[in-house]
Each structure stands twice: as C-alpha cells, then as structure tokens.
# Entry
Amino acid sequence: MATAAVILGANFYTALGGIRTLGRHGVKVYALDYDFSRAYGLSSRYVFKKILCPDINRDEEALAKFLLKLGGTFKKPPVLFASADSYALLISRYAERLAPYYLFPDNPPRLLETIINKRGLYRLSREQGLQMPLTFFPGSEAEFEEIAAKIPYPCIVKPTISHQFVKVFRAKCLRVGEAAGLIKALKQARAAGLEVMVQEIIPGFDDQMFCFDVYVNREGRPTHTLIAQKLRQFPANFGSSTLTHQCYDSEVEAQGLEYIKKLGYRGYGEIEFKRHATSGELYMIEINARLSSINILFDLCGVEFTYVMYRDLTGKPLPDKFLREEKPWAFWHAYEDLLTIRQYRRNGQLTWAQIVKPWLAHRKAHAIWAPDDPRPLFSFAWLILKKVLKKVGRLLTLPLQILIRQRRETVDKRGA
# Structure
C-alpha cells in the first residue's frame, strides 16, 4: 500500500502546487483546512480527500490533537507537509508527539521555530556568521528613539511572525522614511500587541531578490538545488513573487549551501537573498521552512521538491539534481501581477517596456491555472468576484448610510 500525504492548509496556491505535484505522481493527498469556503485548493482533482480541521489561528493545540487522532487512522504513516509558517511551527512544536504517526524531516529541536521567527533567525545568523541586513528588535517603548537614531532610512517595520502582522496591518511590512514615522509605527504595533523588528532596506530593485531552493536529505546532505530570480512582487518591493524566473547564479548557490549547512537544516527549504545594488554582496532576508509559492516553477524545471521530499522520507530517494542550466520558465501569478504593476507604475519604478519584456521572454508557469486541473482557477475567480461584489455593495449603500446618519444627528439635535 502506497504512502499517503497530508497537506496542512489549502487556501493558497502554495498548497495547490504541492497537491498537484504529488497527485500527478499518483500519491493520495489528504488536504486539511479550517474554512472550506475560502480553500480553493480543495477543488483540485488531485485531492483524494478533503478534511475539515480546527482553526490553527484560534487553537493550535486543538489542531495538534486532531492530527494525532487522524494519524492513527492510517495503516502507514503519511508524509506531512506544511503550506504556511503557522503549520510549520505546529509540526516543530509537536514533533515528538507527531513522529509516531507522520513522516517529516527530523530537524534539530526548535530549529524551525528559530528560523521562522525573525528574531530567532537574526540571532542565529549572527552566531553563525551569516550576513543579514542591520536589524533591531525594540523591547520597551524607551528604546524607540534610540533605534530611530541608529537605523538608516528608509527602513521597514516587519513582524517577527508574519501571519500575525498581516491580520492587523493587511500588509507584510511597513515602509518608513523618517524617525517620527518609525516611532509612530512602533507605537501602533505595540498597541496591537505585536512583536516587530526594524530592518534596513538593502539598496536595489526587486530583481535583485534571489531564491535559493534546496532539499537536504535525512543524512544531512543537499541533494537538489534550484535558483530563481524575482522580477516582480506583490505588494511591490516587499511581497510574494508574481513574476519569478529560474536562473543560475554560482554565488547564490555557494552561499546558500554554506548557510544551510551551518544551520543543520533538514528537508525542503528556501533562502531568500538580496544582492546589494552597490557592493554586490548577498544579504539573507529570510528562510521559508514550508512548501514554496513557486512550486509549479520547480516542477516545470524538473526539480520537483515536494515529490523529492516525499520520496526521501518514504525511503525511495530520487537521484541528485543540481540545476545549473537555465530553463525558459517563469512563475506567473496573473491576478497579483496585474495589481502590482499598478503599484510599480504609480511609484515610477517600471516603464511599460520593462513590464512587457519579461512576459514575452519566458514561458509561463501559472500559479493557479492548469489545463489538467482547471477547477481551482474557477474557485479562485469566484472568491475574487465575491470580494468585488461586496465592495461595490458597500459603495452603493454608502450614500444611504450617510443620509441615515445625518437624519439621526438632526433628530438628536432637535431632541436636545
């Protein structure tokens, strides 16, 4: 009986990519999510079974207990995949209890928690001599002015754990241009109960961002690598890939392998680097310890990291592959790319010629669309349409709401 796979989270194209990779190889994929109405990945034909689970954002322990119970129903332990940081953290925190029921990389204790948390990653990078942008972690409010005097501007305010920050600010980070603005942003974050960091911005456009993707097997040996270069992101300058092409850069590869070795990492991982526009030095921005959002690009380039991990953990490893040639493929999220183009144009960062040229130069690895699996695109389109209709509805009823409010105010004044 073949080993199954369990993917945590299905409301993003990150999970969808992993579902398709495994499903196309005949793996039975059990996809879990806490909200079926938003999890468009569940509509994939490659989902063997969709399972409603507890909301990890509300009760992590409840989800852990649910997974333990679910794991006991399999005849053979399935391979467990995380599609988001929160799920990767859960696997790390409950590793000992989950290990008898699931297969997942055996990382050193608390390593994933350390690298997913930006404070932990920065501390670890300094201990291991890994170059990162200058970063401060404000504690008391008394430190705000001291940090504001030391950090170069513009700078960014980022969360130590991303998914919590996005819920409050609806953005991955806040860009700040002067000391007063920084102090205001830090006070705002503190009021929301968020732990944040202040980080310098490494000079250079978004095309100086590189992804080093690697798989490290159970023995601790890197067996597969691929490098990709971001061309555009959403939101512009500080976001997720919308147009990213596969490339080869020997310096990124060498530094990526050095960093991953020093960390003692196991499994699939992605290190994001940014090359300084003036010095040319590479700075580590973050490490992703979950499935990648550009998974489809890997597959079309012949380095299927999700399946590589599945095969290694099930004792049937694939041959090593270090992709050092350049393929014609580029990951493309059409919807988000169109949104971010507007931002780049508004910022005066790209001309129309610079926008169109990469489109024409690459074959597209679509984030959501797939000819053999079209339903997720329609599910995603329906979610977007509902958002648009809701927004239009609010705009149409706004004049009526204002009129009602004005009449109430008039009545109150007369009564007074």
DSSP finds 15 helices and 16 strands in the chain. Residues 375-415 form the longest helix (41 residues). The mean pLDDT is 91. The two ends are 79 Å apart (CA to CA).
